[in-house]
Amino acid sequence: MSENERNTLVPDIREVLAQHGRFPVENLTEADDLYNAGLTSLATVAVMLALEDKFNVEFPDNLIGRRTFKSIESIAEAITKLAA
Known about the structure:
Blueprint: H1 3-20, H2 34-37, H3 41-55, H4 72-83
């Protein structure tokens, strides 16, 4: 993912996480583990649905899992692939 793509996606991903993740995101780096920060499996579903709406993408079954939603960086990479 290019630096420009990341700069565009990350603020929007942070906004979705703040609204639907049910844990504080303001001090997280892009690589921090979101599950260690407080993301639950239930909140992951809400985050995924909000990301799908925000970015007009649909996460296929093979991307619905901890690996995709582990960090802001991994979410941005998944969205970049889905939007391509």
